[in-house]
Amino acid sequence: MADLHTTLVHFDILYDQPVRLSPLVQRITANNPSPFTGAGTNTYLVGTDRFTVIDPGPAEPEHIDAILAATGGKIDYVFATHAHEDHSPAALPLVQATGAQMMGLQVVSDSESLDHTFTPARSLQEGEVVSVGECDLRVIATPGHLHQHLSFLLPQEQLLFAGDHIMQGASVVIIPEHGGCMVDYLDSLMKLKGIGIQHLAPAHGHLLSDPDRVLQELHDHRLARERMIVDALRTLKKATTAQLAPLVYPDVAGDLVHGTYMALAAHLHKLVHDGVASRHWEKHWLLGEVVWEWVE
Predict the structure, then answer these.
(1) How many CB atoms lie within 10 A of CB 13?
(2) Does the pLDDT value for residue 13 go beyond 90?
(3) Phi, psi values for residue 123, rounded to 5°
(4) Helix 182-192 vs helix 257-273: angle between axes, to the nearest 10 degrees?
(5) Class of domain 219-293
(6) CA–CA separation, 288 vs 263, rounded Å?
(7) Assign residue 133 a region: left if phi > 0, alpha if psi is -120 to 50, beta otherwise?
């Protein structure tokens, strides 16, 4: 894994083609780019003779065929970090084609944004180690983006498959109504710091080196945004989301503005948890003498 820092982090994203990142890891990126998926969803193949597939991605025939071709169908496990529709739907057709075991955490919400075809043979537990050939994958619970979000550590290369817990070049979307939690997310970032990880393999974007720096910067960025929210609420005294968003996210415009409303909600839930703000009725927030009226 030593060459990753200087060489392999620069590989281009190629759709539905295997890119070798190390002796034990290949990446196949689904052709599903969007504002929320970046360049597309990364599927990782771990192993040399027998394989574990991590985040199989959307159930697109070209993507599934690329995974089967790269592994020769010799798949023992299909892991998903979480059951969003860009991460796990290809699990079922891969299991049906190869007899692999589907592994992860069961969906516990009826949200339409979740993949209800993802039904693991059993739930993975914190600290559990699953072995395929010379590769071990250790399960690390990283709730935040969703409560049922997992990351997987490959100890042989100290590489962490981070799913949507960490993205390259973008902030993770956290939606409380869909099971996201800013408190958990920040705690999960710090949980990973200082445990010896050498590189991060996100589900969207390129490999990331210097993980401890990345983790601290993400943590600090969120707290800086939180301070902007508190300052804006104190200044406005009473604010709708539409009034608050441009003060907290001054560089965001157009179709992406709605995403700032979701981000604001996640931060406000944390402020309630911390005792800094309180929620009144179903759609109102209070900070000292400041009221923020939630807009659908």
Answers:
(1) 17
(2) no
(3) -85, 135
(4) 80
(5) mainly alpha
(6) 21
(7) left
Q: Smallest Cα–Cα separation from 81: which of 142, 20, 22?
A: 142
Task: Kindly list the distances between the CA atom of residue 171 and the CA atoms of 107, 126, 271, in Å, as whole numbers in the listed order.
Answer: 23, 25, 19
Query: Is domain 2-209 given the CATH code 3.20.19.10 in the classification?
Result: no
CA distance 46 to 25: 5
Express each pLDDT in 201-229 by its tens digit: 999 999 999 999 999 999 999 999 999 99
Go through the chain and tell me how many residues it has: 296
HSE, side-chain direction, 13 A CA sphere, residue 114: 24
Strands (E), the chain: 19-20, 25-29, 42-47, 51-54, 75-79, 101-104, 122-123, 129-132, 135-141, 150-154, 159-163, 199-202, 208-209, 238-240, 278-280, 284-287, 290-293
Look-up of token digits 């939630």: 294
SS3 122: strand
- For the chain, the structural domain boundaries read 2-209, 219-293
Helices 211-236 & 257-273 angle (0-180, nearest 10): 90
List pLDDT tens digits, range 36-67: 788 899 999 999 999 999 999 999 999 999 99
